[in-house]
């Protein structure tokens, strides 16, 4: 016969709660141990030398704490700026496959100037004019003026404008997310050219600035994607450093009371887990009858009914039993039902032998209470079939046998042996009474 025990997940989770007092005591014991462990590790220094060392350590910790706070504030500001940049940047927000370029190529030419000191020596002003022209085009005053007209910030405009020089040519390039924006920014730059060239005339004298090429086109620019990935990578790294700095600061500023609470909670949770696991493993590995439905494996056993144990059960215990659909009837109702079932299944049998793997006291109590309900029938208990010879001998003299099995007391393999013994003696099995938790 298969003696493996079947238990549902709900039963597995509920059973340890029947022992809530033991679990609570375990948690309290470990709570005390946790506090003792904390007090042992946080004892004050005994000697003056240790006190001085402790004072120096506190001073160093205070200094380190201030440094960490400054670092955290700096990193926090940096991360916020990077996030703002990602949200607001026109350049980073562009689709690298659809980038608009507005481009002007300007040729600068200047007449050589003859110095008064050396009449035979002349100098070309073109390189100086090109450099000064590029500086003025990249100046903050120019980009700030353009940004104000477009309702943008200065940095948003500056990263869209690129000025380069080569030989006698200066190239102004504007990139944007649309043709309209690129052309708009370029037009504003063109409007500033007369003022810029007037300043250069004052410094360098006469020169010409001719527009060689003007274009506006759409192109692919993967440098935008590279810049975005670079910013994202830097942001991720800064966030990691910021989190590490925050964790270090929290660990340094944690008060002794916080540590004490942490130790207490840790040991309480440990006690809860250990005790819960102990009782859960106990019900899994004990090979004992857990509830009346477990009798279904024994086809020859009829469940005559379930009765409550002879002990006081509190409200919490009753709620747990209700969750598991266990018998909750009062003694009188439960025994009346069992007695009625015995009459029905016993038929003409009058001499009934009570046996079972429940405790002797429990079997005697069940026999006495059933005897009071079953007038005209004789119920007797001679002891365990597996231990008492008198009980085995009584099998031949009885008309029928009623087993009394108690949850988490009666072993499943013992029940199987009892059934084998009863069959071997040729006795008739009336059924089984289950004594609940």
Please give a structural write-up.
The protein has about 425 residues and is an alpha/beta fold. It folds into three domains: about 10-90 and about 225-285, no CATH class; about 100-220, Bacterial polysaccharide co-polymerase-like (2-Layer Sandwich); about 290-435, P-loop containing nucleotide triphosphate hydrolases (Rossmann fold), CATH 3.40.50. Helices cover about 55% and strands about 15% of the residues. A five-stranded parallel sheet has the order 7-11-10-8-9, sandwiched between helices. A four-stranded antiparallel sheet has the order 4-5-1-6, with helices on one face. α2 packs antiparallel against α9 and α11 (about 330-345) crosses α12 (about 360-375). The chain is rod-shaped, with a radius of gyration of 47 Å. The two termini are about 25 Å apart.
Poorly predicted regions are 45-51, 114-122
Provide mean pLDDT, rounded.
80
What is the percentage of strand-forming residues?
15-25%
The H/E string reads HHHEEEHHHEEHEHHEHHEHEHEHE
User: How many beta-strand segments?
Assistant: 11
Number of structural units classed as domains: 3
Total number of helices: 14
Question: Gap between N and C termini, in Å?
Answer: 25 Å
What characteristic shape results from the CA principal axes?
rod-shaped
- Give the biggest beta sheet: 5 strands, parallel
Q: What percent of the residues sit in helical stretches (DSSP H or I)?
A: 55-70%
Q: Main sheet: which strands, in order across? A: 7-11-10-8-9
Task: Please give the radius of gyration in angstroms.
Answer: 47 Å
SSE-based structural type: alpha/beta
